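TA notes, week 10

Several of you asked for a full example with nothing omitted. So below is the full record: structure tokens for the whole chain, then the designed sequence directly under it. When grading your own attempts, check the secondary structure regions first.
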């Protein structure tokens, strides 16, 4: 029996690879999970009551695009956060942002451009759904280094014109996973100009937008609104997984132009999985409330300060501008991860599992990603053990 070739070169996903690396070895101490970006801060205290009051909604098919109340809550949040009015025909609720990132590429990436196979641009390292979405759409993934030399953001403008002219999509993640870099307003404005010049779409993954160190990160919706950019040239994705500490809710949204949204909605009506109605009610309440977001942000900012104290004076250490990860330089990410597990029980992720080899180089190989998700005391203990084991 034949199988599709387009996915044949995919590496194992990051976390099965991590299990294969570590699980045959006993931990060197009480395990501390710092490998996965699964928030452990309290979820909003109103969730249980809303679920209980709406449990009957599990007995009906939910609205595919989102209830009017949920879409209104999302548009209200966008207006408060970015000062931009986004109408309902430009919004759709998602069953987790990963689903939206994947399906939007299928809905919006053309099969050919200028008579050639299209290209999809993405930072390297990156959130792994970007690559598989490109392959599913029949496009060629182009991995663009996002290293210290480029401020941990991809320099798409430096690509050859032939590549840019074949590009149909370009991904940007800000704050970046895993490096924590925040894209400045000028950078986003330049990306919009690049998209216009080369007739491509920007996909902005802004799932970490509410976790920041000094100032709220700018968003593509804000910058595009001020520039008067064509909304069909971009799509923006947000999630409650990090904002509201509810990764299991599987709730996010996409915002784009009305024509693009019509195409995304149409594909999803055939192949999507809408969010159950009671969960849409929870999501609506989450987007309307800021108190729980502020409380969680304060915890992350305390962890930033904690990390700065633990790694004070360590050469190469940098605090992220946003997000929930430290991107720590080491000699070899896989070797450091295994050593740390065997000697302390602290579990981190090798940076190369989030990257691809390009021309024999992997920009994540000399890093480990450390998730600052555990309770504060456990986080401090894990960071100290990591420092002493790898840098002591």
């Amino acid at each position: 029996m034949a199988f599709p070739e387009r996915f044949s070169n995919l590496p194992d996903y990051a976390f099965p690879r991590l299990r294969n690396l570590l699980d045959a070895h006993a931990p060197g101490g009480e395990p501390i999970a710092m490998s996965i970006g699964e928030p452990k801060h309290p979820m909003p205290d109103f969730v249980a009551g809303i679920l209980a009051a709406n449990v009957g909604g599990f007995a009906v098919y939910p609205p595919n695009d989102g209830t009017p109340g949920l879409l209104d809550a999302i548009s209200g949040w966008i207006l408060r956060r970015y000062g931009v009015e986004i109408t309902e025909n430009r919004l759709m609720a998602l069953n987790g942002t990963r689903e939206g990132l994947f399906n939007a590429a299928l809905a919006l990436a053309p099969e050919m451009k200028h008579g050639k196979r299209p290209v999809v641009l993405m930072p390297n390292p990156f959130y792994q759904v970007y690559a598989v979405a490109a392959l599913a759409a029949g496009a060629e993934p182009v991995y663009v280094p996002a290293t210290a030399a480029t401020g941990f953001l991809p320099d798409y403008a430096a690509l050859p014109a032939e590549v840019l002219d074949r590009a149909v999509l370009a991904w940007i993640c800000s704050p970046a996973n895993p490096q924590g870099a925040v894209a400045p307003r000028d950078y986003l404005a330049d990306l919009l100009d690049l998209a216009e010049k080369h007739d491509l779409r920007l996909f902005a993954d802004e799932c970490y937008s509410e976790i920041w160190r000094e100032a709220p990160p700018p968003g593509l919706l804000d910058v595009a609104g001020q520039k008067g950019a064509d909304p069909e040239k971009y799509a923006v994705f947000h999630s409650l997984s990090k904002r509201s500490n509810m990764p299991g809710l599987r709730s996010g949204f996409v915002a784009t132009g009305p024509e693009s949204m019509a195409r995304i909605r149409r594909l999803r009506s055939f192949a999507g999985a809408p969010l159950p109605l009671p969960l849409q009610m929870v999501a609506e309440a989450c987007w309307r409330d800021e108190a729980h977001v502020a409380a969680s942000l304060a915890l992350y900012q305390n962890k930033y300060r904690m990390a700065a104290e633990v790694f004070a004076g360590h050469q190469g250490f940098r605090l992220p501008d946003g997000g929930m990860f430290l991107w720590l330089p080491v000699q070899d990410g896989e070797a450091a991860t295994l050593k740390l597990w065997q000697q302390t029980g602290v579990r981190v992720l090798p940076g190369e599992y989030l990257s691809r080899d390009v021309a024999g180089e992997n920009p994540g190989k000399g890093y480990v990603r450390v998730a600052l998700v555990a309770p504060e005391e456990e986080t401090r203990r894990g960071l100290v053990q990591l420092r002493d084991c790898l840098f002591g």
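Residues 291-310 form the longest helix (20 residues). Use that as a sanity check on your answer.
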